[in-house]
Amino acid sequence: MASSGKVLAAGFNLHGQLGPTVSETNGSLPRFTQIQKLGQVDLDRDIVIRCALWSATVINTGELFVHYGISGTDPPQIHFDALIGLDGRPKLGMFFGDVSGVKGFLDPNSGDLYILQDVGKNHARFVRHYFHANDFLPRTGKRITGIAVAGNTWVCITTSCNDPAVFLFSSLEPLLEGSDPMEWYTLREAVKTLVASCTTFATLGRQRPCVETFGDARYPTLLGRTPSVQSPASLPTVISALDGIKIAKIAAGPWLIAALSSEKDLYVWGHVMQLPMGDNYSNFDKLLNPGDSTGTPDDVQLVDISDGNDVDDVGVGDHHVVVRTTIGELWGYGSNEFGQLGLGRGVKSTQGKWVKMYTPNEGENVREIAAGPLSTFIVVGS
Q: CB 3.0–4.6 Å: which of 18, 242, 252, 278 could bond 195 by disulfide?
C-alpha cells in the first residue's frame, strides 16, 4: 500500500532542479517550499530522492521516475522504459552525473550501464550501453556494482562481490570506450557504498564496515589520512582514525566527507576551500579543526550536534552539511548563500555553528534528507 508524503526543497534553483513550478526570479528558494507537482505527477506518495546534482534532480514517486533540471525535459519526464524492472517498478540502481546534469544509470544487479541520450529534446531516454568483447570489462569478466564521478572528472567503478576491486578512469569517456583504467586495485571485501569528493573517493565495506579512501594527492586532507610511501594517495587505505568503528553511512560533497557510525556519531574530514573574493560562508575550517586558529584541518573530526544529539542521517553539499537527529530534528551547518539551509535571504551562513533548520509538524516524521551541491531536500511522511 502506497504511503503518503511530501517533498520540500530549498536552495539554488536557476535550472529548475528544485522544481520548475517553484522558481523565483533570482533562481533560488531561500526557505523550504513544498514541491507538490512535477509535470503531471503529484508528489504525494513513496517519495525517494534518487539523485540531486548541481543542475538536475531525479525523484522516485510510486512507480515513476521524475527527471527534471538542465538535463531533463520540459515538462519533466516521468517514465523511462529501460529503467523499469520486470515487476513494473523502478530498478534499484544509482544515477550518476556531473555539473552538466545526469549522465547515466547503473543497475548493480546486472552490472549494466544506461546512458542518457537526446538531452534537450522532449523525450530524453536511457539507452543500455554495450561493451565490445575485447573491451576491458568483458575481457576481464568484471561486473560493475558501483560508480561515482569526482569533481576533477575522474570516474571510479567498483566490481563484483566475488572479486572486489576499484578501477579509476580519467573521465566517463574512456570507461564507455572500453579502455583500460588508469589504475586499479584489489579490495579486501565488497563495497556497500562508493562516494566521490572533488579529487578523492571513499568506500564503505559491506561486511566489515570500515572506510577506505584513495584518489588524487593534491588535496590530501580529503583522504582523512596522511599519504605515505606504503599507503600513497592512490591506494585504497583504511582511515586509521575510524578503524574499529562500525560505520553505517558515508556521504560526500566536493570539499567534505562525512561518516555516520552505528552508534549515531558523526565524523567529518575535508579541505578548507575559500569561496570567491575570500568569503568563507561554509566555515568548514571551524568544523574540521575547531581548536586551531590556522584553519589547517586535522585528519578526522568527531562532530557535536547541539550538546550531543545523536545523528541518524547526513547529507553533504558544496559548502553545507545537513543532519537528522534521532528525535527527528534537522540541523544544518555552513553556507546559506543560496538558501540551501532554508534559513531565509538575510542569512549568509551559520557562522560556524549548528542551526536548527526544520522541525516537522505534529504527526509528521522526516523520512529522508538529501543535499545537492547548493540545495537541500526533505522528504516528510505522516
A: 252
Phi-psi region of 277 (alpha: psi -120 to 50; beta: other; left: phi over 0): left
Strand partners for 268: 258, 301
Spell out a b/e string for 229-260, using b for 16 or more CB atoms within 10 Å of the CB, else e. eebebbebbbbebbeebebbbbbbbbbbbbbb
Torsion of CA 186, 190, 192, 193, to 10 degrees: 10
Question: Residues 299-310: pLDDT tens digits?
Answer: 799 999 987 889
Sheet containing 94-98, strands listed edge to edge, beginning at the edge strand earlier in sequence: 94-98, 101-107, 112-117, 125-128
Contact criterion met (CB below 8 Å) for 369 and 378: yes
